[in-house]
Amino acid sequence: MAYPTVNAPYGFKPINRLDGMPYAGATRQLNIASGYAANLLYGDLVIVVTGGVIEKFTGTTTGSPVGVFVGCVYTNPTTKQRLQAQYWPTGTVASDATGYVVDDPNAVFKVAVTNGSSVMSSAALASVGSNMSIIQGTGSTATGNSAVSVLAGSEGTTAALPVRVVDVVPETATGADAFVELIVKINLHQYNNTTGV
What we know:
Number of domains: 2
Helix content: under 10%
Structural class: mainly beta
Mean pLDDT: 95
Largest sheet: 7 strands, mixed
Oligomer: single chain
Strand content: 25-35%
Low-confidence stretches: none
Distance between the termini: 47 Å
């Protein structure tokens, strides 16, 4: 039996850079529009849109995310206190909101493999080097954590697919060639995309 067991998707977790250097927690603060009407959860992919603010990346088979959301800071509209939060609650009115985003184009992330219903699945070692699509699972506002994952069986050569598989995670494998977590990088990073917003 593998240890530890991965029971559910958790979004994208930064672990290091493509060149092997450790992830030191580097983030960029990017603005969130006051009243933005979607939850931004820890581990969600995000994109910069017109106006220079971030929004949740909702793509599955195409798109150019700018990075991974790992928390935010804003003035709570009720208490008027500055708040550091795990996630951005949909519709929050705060003109000073910024999100912390791991936006290094060379960052690599650990991510769970699921089927089309966000149920845990696996990928083979042969997935390394392929591109994959994303499943936009429903995260938890109780924990603030994302439920985004990559889709089992979506491995391919299609250039538009959002992530590239860099490696597998042997520690959580459920069989000799059944890896429930992969190491990926953003395939078409927004900073490297020649088309602006």
